[in-house]
Amino acid sequence: MAKFIHLTDVHVVGEGKTMYGSDPAKRLAGAVESINAEQSDAEFAVIGGDLTHWGGPEEYEAVKKAVSGLTIPLVLMVGNHDAVPELRRHFPDAFDDGNGFVQGVWRTDAGKCLFLQTLQEGVHSGHYCEKRQAWLKAQLDADDEPVFLFMHHPPFEVGIAGMDGSRMLDSEALWSILEPHRARIRHLFFGHIHRPIFGSWRGVPVSCMRSTNQQLALDLRDETENPDIRRVPGNMEEPAYGVVLADRDTVIVHMHEYRRRTPEFLFIPPPDQREGRGYAHDMKLEGFEG
Ligand SMILES: [Fe+2]
């Protein structure tokens, strides 16, 4: 059984600096602490892009500091808020596909993970140029292993008008490469939307995780009058990361709200703590209002 961690959209803005009232670097450091404590048997963690918000040196420095204590290998991807040259200055070991794109492969017993760069610097929408397409095709043609795809931008709409315009726009070109290998593409992990989303695209199972800082609210109304000024509703739902368990049969994606701020209890208490019929379903959870 392969186990790996899907973090995404950490949006670091510098050490001690806040965004929408919370400190993304601190949130990322909290995720690292949680992974070390609870998921240290995972093969790797990936941050699926938007490592920083503005792509500046101070921001990558803060990312570096926040992840420095992680005890499992870390894979870095880029999103529309990143800058590849600055990433490389701070993380010289980041993937390079030979053409300068942050693309690479990680092999597990359950199949190989392919990390794609959908960032085209200077625009917020995702793109996948011919050079990157050639790399992906070569990876898929190389063997018959099951494949897990990781992208920042989804190549499909998710029903949130303010974000759908900045999806990965070269989706047909991407699909033409994937389609011949459809049967062995096990899952597509994406980010960018800052929400837990699960479904499928042309039969490929897909999932997105929350950001570790600001989230998109679930608001599917499209009240946009001017398409150039899209309404993007946000909120501060709890940060989360994905815990993926995969073997040759199954891919399971757990979303973990790692700050564990809600009360925790045993569904079935040990015998010496049981009352009456045994299961204390009427127990009081201190400080919790249902
Ligand atoms: Fe983002």
What is the averaged pLDDT score? Answer: 94
Number of domains: 1
The side-by-side strand order for the widest beta sheet comes to 4-5-6-7-9-8
What is the fold named in CATH at topology level?
A: Purple Acid Phosphatase, chain A, domain 2
The CATH class, by name, is Alpha Beta
Query: Which structural class should the secondary elements be placed in?
Result: alpha/beta
Helix fraction by DSSP (H/I, runs of at least 4)? 10-25%
Bound molecules: fe (ii) ion
Terminus-to-terminus distance: 37 Å
DSSP summary, beta strand count: 13
Which second-level CATH architecture applies? 4-Layer Sandwich
Which runs of at least 5 residues are low in confidence (pLDDT < 50)? none
Portion of residues in beta strands equals: 15-25%
The CATH superfamily bears the name Metallo-dependent phosphatases
In DSSP terms (H or I, runs of 4 or more residues), the helix count works out at 6
3D shape? globular
Biggest sheet record = 6 strands, mixed
Family: Belongs to the cyclic nucleotide phosphodiesterase class-III family.
Protein name: Phosphodiesterase
Organism: Flavimaribacter sediminis
Pfam family, one: Metallophos
